[in-house]
Amino acid sequence: MSTSKPAISSQLLIGRVRPENSVLLAPMSGVTDLAFRRIAARTGAGMVVSEMVASAELARADDEARLRAEGSGLDIHVVQLAGRDPQWMAEAARVAVGAGAAIVDINMGCPAKKVVGGHGGSALLKELDLAVRLIAATVAAVDAPVTVKMRLGWDDSSIVAPELAQRAEAEGAAMVTVHGRTRSQFYEGKADWSAIAAVKDAVSIPVVANGDLVALDDATAMLAASSADAVMIGRGAQGKPWFPGAVAAFLKTGVRPAEPSLATQQALAIEHYDGILTLYGRDVGVRHARKHLGWYIDAAAETVGEDAPRDLKADAMTATTPEAALSALDRAYSTLAWRAAA
C-alpha cells in the first residue's frame, strides 16, 4: 500500500466559503439530485453542486427548477444556473441565495444540443462579451461568491478559457472550473488537463480542474498536469457517490481507501432511491432513478471484479414500481456477493 502523500494546494477558499477539502462533485443534469449530493457530502466530498438550473425558470418559481435547486441538509449549498439573459440570471441568483445557496455557479460549459441551441452553456464561449455581462450581473445581484464553469473553448481553433477566466475574475468571480475539453469534443477523446494550466497562469482566483477523473491516481495526475487548486469529479461519481470522498482521503493521506463493502453500497443505493422518490414523488421518481440503479450495480460489479448481472440490471432499470426495482437491486447485489465468495 502506498503511503506517499500526493501534492495538493493549501485549503480551498472561494470568496468567504471554505470547503472541507479540495475535491468537488460536479453539477450533472439528471444525476446530482439532492439525495445524491447529500450522500456525496456525507461521505467526504469537499463541496457538491446542484444540477444545472435554468435561470428564467427558477426566477419564475417553476416547480422542476425549484427541485433541482433544492439544497436542504447541505452545509455548503451551491446552485448552478444556466441562461443567456443577464436580468434572469441576476434574479435567479437572488432566488437561489434567498433559499440558502452559499455559492452561485454559472454554466458556460454544457455541450448538450438543447442547451447550446438556446445559446446557453458552452455556446457562450463564442460570445465572450455576453458571457462577461452575465457574470457581472450575477455578481452584482448577490452577496455570495459567484463561480464559473467552462470548457477550454468551442473548438481547437478557439481556446478562450484563459481569456474568459481573466475577464471573469475582473468582474468579481471567486473561482473558475475548467473541463479539459472543447465543446466540439463533447465527451469524446481524453480531457487535456495540461491545457488547464494556462488558465491557472492567467488568474489569481482558485482554478478547479475537471474531466475524466475516474480513479484515485487520476487525481494526482490531474493536479500535476493542470497546476489547479482543486479537482472536480463528474461521471466518475455515477453510481459511486462516495468516490469524491475517497479521492479527498487519498490526496490528504496518500493511503488508498478500501472500497465500501457491497452491503454499504447497497444501503447507499437504497438511501438514494428513497431520496429520489421523496423529492420527485413515486411515479416520476421511479423513472428518474432507473439510470442510477444501473450505475450502482455496475459499481458493485467493479468492486468485486465481476461482470454486472445483465438480466437483473435490466430488471432494476425497467421496473415500474419501487418494490420491483428494489427487489431486482437486492438480487443483483446478492448475486455479486455470491460470485465474489465462490
Describe this structure in words.
This protein has two domains: about 25-255, Alpha-Beta Barrel (TIM Barrel); about 260-340. The protein has 14 helices and eight strands. The relative contact order is 0.12. The protein has an eight-stranded parallel barrel with strand order 1-2-3-4-5-6-7-8, surrounded by six helices. The protein is globular and about 60 Å long. It is of the alpha/beta class and about 350 residues long. About 45% of the residues lie in helices and about 10% in strands. Helix 4 runs parallel beside helix 6 (about 130-140) and helix 13 (about 310-320) runs antiparallel to helix 14 (about 320-340). The model has no long low-confidence stretch (mean pLDDT about 95). Belongs to the dus family. Keywords: Flavoprotein, FMN, NADP, Nucleotide-binding, Oxidoreductase, RNA-binding, tRNA processing, tRNA-binding. GO terms for molecular function: flavin adenine dinucleotide binding; tRNA binding; tRNA dihydrouridine synthase activity.
